[in-house]
Design a protein that fits this description.
heterodimer, A: 446 residues, Porin, 7 helices, B: 175 residues, mainly alpha, Rna Polymerase Sigma Factor, Chain: A, Arc Repressor Mutant, subunit A, 2 domains, 0% strand, disordered C terminus
């Protein structure tokens, strides 16, 4: 608390310190409505946040599930169920007498690729039967109802193998087992022994390519806004060119479509120049220079009065000035979280596609400085900037394979901010920027 | 309290007169004061859970009103012309002159001050904050706060002199 007792201070403190006055009637109703409205907005915002988090989790889960199964889809061309159901019988066949070494190798390879599972009681009983017996039983189609269609086809194949085995034993000549036509097997499904060159290591080579990618990119940003307004002598605002860059992760969800997200740093910069011409007023006019770290409003020029001479309150006096020039430089820095999709029209060594998406831009930097008649008065920041704004982007993507894992990309892209950067109703500043993003993508094969 | 209409009405009935008096001092006119009062009470009602029962409730509300006024000032801080007031620095007044000035007239004078001077004068002369505290609240230096207070006093002296006459009698008499 201060102890100084200036007469003016004393006078005002004495008479206004406990001053009371009835507020206008109806203000309480307005306050109550505003409280209800804000509570509703707060609840809606909370719901939005929860929904956003839930949606993000679902998306991440789906992406994880999809990427996890992408490999399985490409490798398992044979339905897993079919493979599993033949496994126990194969085990018996492998150990059956009269089966050649080559046949055993085929069966062992098949077992290794089909995985293992628990054997049912019904199957155990079958396994205990001699191979010959079972083969005859299956050949005469006397399997009971517990064996499904695929099991029947498996039995038929096994039967065939066993029969062949007996034949070869009799003739003392080992040959590969023949594949009997399977009426239950779909035409699109590959057969077990149809191609003895089955090799899981080479079967999914095409699909393994570029499932995930990480890209580093950078671009100059060319701004489009360049406006002039006649305010007390003329004002000209010009958006300045800046840079943008970041790290983007992409997931190839199909042969032609990929989605990507990451983090990008971007800037906006604007310079406003104003000329004032003096009108006739009396007295000396003080202009309050902007203090360090004080706020500078972009529309500050709208409020400057006509002046005849200028004395800054810090003592500076540009004498005999007939004109007055002001430059306000503003710089806004954002962290951008994009969500983009790319559709590749050409996907070869040289690729070409269309890309587009939306971004959330979070304000992380806000600088402004004001220079009047060549004198830089102070640094500050721009008032009323929105902390979060959204933008949309669309463009083209050109890619060139530099090797197995590296791709060079060039993406001309237009970015349009969806809201004004300022929450001030007087200001409607929605920058349109053009960037030519150059990047290197490193692919992680799955 | 939040969402409790009756409690809000009672609170408003108890404190609205005092708070409106404060808002009037920080505002340039009654419309501006109503805006501050409305925003201030909305904050009181929505943030009442943050009151920790440390100090008086009225003091807490008062700080909310002052902070609301300061926020509005920051949003609308503009460059303002100020006249050369050195001619009024040596003016002094009689006790009778000063006592004849009504609170409404003083309120009118204080509302006519440029926003920055009005803020500093209110915070220093009436609320009792130091220049260092004012500097932190308004994001200005201590020296600027002193300078603004000095100019605010000069402007108010000039207005008193213009409206209620001047005499060369020591200002000590008014203490």
């Amino acid at each position: 608390m201060t102890t100084e007792n200036h007469p003016i201070d004393h006078l005002f403190r004495e008479k206004l310190g406990s001053f009371e006055q009835n507020p206008p009637v109806g203000l309480l109703d307005q306050i109550s409505q505003e409280v209800v409205f804000r509570n509703r907005v707060r609840k809606i915002n909370q719901i939005k946040i929860y929904v956003g988090i839930a949606a993000a989790m679902v998306l991440v889960s789906m992406a994880g599930w999809y990427s996890g199964h992408l490999n399985e889809f490409s490798e398992n061309k044979t339905p897993a169920r079919l493979q599993k159901e033949v496994t126990p019988i194969q085990q018996n066949i492998v150990s059956a007498p009269g089966v050649s070494k080559e046949q055993k190798n085929h069966l062992v390879a098949l077992q290794q690729n089909s995985g293992t599972r628990a054997v049912t009681t019904n199957e155990k009983q079958k396994i205990k039967q001699p191979v010959k017996q079972r083969s005859v039983a299956s050949a005469s189609a006397k399997n009971n109802g517990t064996v499904n269609q695929t099991a029947v086809s498996s039995n038929e194949m096994v039967t065939n193998a066993a029969a062949t085995s007996r034949n070869t034993t009799d003739s003392k000549e080992v040959t590969k087992p023949e594949i009997k036509s399977d009426k239950y097997q779909k035409k699109s499904e590959p057969r077990y022994f149809a191609n003895s060159q089955f090799n899981p290591a080479t079967s999914t080579k095409k699909e393994e390519k570029t499932s995930w990618g990480l890209k580093a990119e950078v671009s100059p940003m060319f701004a489009s806004q360049n406006q002039a307004a006649a305010i007390n002598g003329g004002t000209n605002s010009k958006s300045m060119n800046t840079v943008s860059g970041g790290m983007i992760a992409s997931l190839k969800v199909s042969k032609r479509v990929s989605i990507s997200s990451g983090i990008r740093y971007s800037q906006m910069s604007q310079s406003t120049h104003t000329n004032y011409y003096m009108n006739n007023t009396s007295g000396i006019v003080y202009l309050q220079p902007v203090e360090k770290s004080a706020n500078i409003s972009r529309d500050v020029t709208l409020y400057l009065p006509s002046i005849s001479s200028i004395v800054y309150s810090n003592g500076m006096k540009p004498a005999n000035t007939t004109s007055f020039a002001s430059d306000i430089a503003q710089e806004f820095k954002y962290l951008e979280i994009p969500l983009q999709a790319t559709y590749r029209l050409i996907d070869n060594k040289l690729s070409f596609g269309l890309t587009g998406g939306i971004s959330t831009n979070i304000l992380v930097g806000n600088n402004a400085s004001i220079t009047e008649n060549g004198i830089k008065l102070s640094n500050g920041n721009t008032d009323n900037l929105r902390n979060v704004i959204y933008s949309g982007a669309a463009g083209l993507e050109f890619g060139y394979d530099l090797g197995n894992r590296l791709v060079l990309t060039v993406e001309p892209r237009v970015k349009q901010y969806m809201h004004s950067v300022s929450s001030n109703d007087l200001i409607n500043f929605k920058p349109l920027q053009l960037g030519i993003f150059t990047g290197i993508t490193y692919s992680f094969n799955y | 309290m939040e969402g409790n209409g009756k409690a809000q009405t009672e609170l408003y009935r108890l404190f609205s007169r005092k708070m409106y008096g404060i808002c009037l001092r920080y505002a340039k006119d009654t419309a501006n004061a109503e805006d501050i009062l409305q925003e201030g009470f909305v904050r009181v009602f929505t943030k009442i859970k943050q009151f920790e029962f440390k100090g008086s409730f009225e003091g807490w509300m008062r700080r909310i009103m002052v902070n609301t006024a300061l926020e509005k000032f920051r949003k609308n801080d503009r460059l303002y012309p100020v006249e050369d007031l050195s001619a009024y620095e040596s003016m002094e007044y009689t006790e009778e002159t000063l006592s004849s000035i009504s609170a409404d007239e003083l309120m009118e004078m204080i509302q006519s001050l440029p926003p920055r001077y009005r803020m500093v004068f209110n915070l220093y002369a009436i609320e009792g904050y130091t220049h260092i505290e004012i500097g932190e609240m308004m994001n200005i230096t201590e020296g600027t706060s002193k300078s603004n207070l000095s100019r605010a006093r000069m402007i108010l002296q000039k207005k008193v002199a213009e409206n209620f006459g001047t005499e060369n009698i020591s200002a000590e008499k008014v203490k």
